[in-house]
Specification:
The protein is built from no helices and 9 strands. By secondary structure, it is mainly beta. It has a single domain, classed as Macroglobulin (MG2) domain (Immunoglobulin-like, Sandwich), CATH 2.60.40.1930. A 5-stranded antiparallel β-sheet has the order 1-2-3-7-6, with no helix packed on it. It has a 4-stranded antiparallel β-sheet with strand order 5-4-8-9, with no helix packed on it.
């Protein structure tokens, strides 16, 4: 599976200033103590469900939440579900999640394991 080229691109920051970059359907997470990547199965858009697979280093189960542009914290529509095998070449363990972004704007997805946490900021259009 191809991986995105992120050379020279800034990682995501609060308020989508900037939003996390997306290339070849991948999005790198911002973290100081782990490495995490998302693989998007579609384009982020307000309304329809978006499947995102995650790979993250560290130990323990993956816990995820998303914070809406208005500050509401939501759980994924489903998951995280552990994946046993994959041809996606990024470090860490893999899980699948489903998300419904019910409004446009900057969404923060927070990923946490027993060791390590990371964030992705998605600018979700209407």
């Amino acid at each position: 599976m191809p991986t995105g080229d992120f050379s020279g691109l800034a990682l995501g920051r609060p308020g989508c200033k900037p939003a996390s970059p997306i290339a070849a359907s991948e999005v790198p997470a911002t973290s100081s103590d782990a490495e995490a990547w998302g693989l998007l199965f579609g384009v982020p858009k307000a309304g329809p469900e978006l499947k995102i697979a995650w790979r993250m280093t560290g130990s323990g189960e993956l816990h995820t939440t998303a914070t809406s542009p208005k500050g509401t914290v939501v759980a994924p529509a489903w998951g995280p579900e552990a994946h046993g095998g994959s041809n996606w070449d990024r470090p860490g363990d893999e899980w699948g999640t489903g998300w419904v972004f019910d409004e446009p704007g900057c969404w923060r997805i927070h990923l946490a394991r027993d060791s390590g946490s990371a964030d992705v900021w998605l600018d979700v259009p209407a």
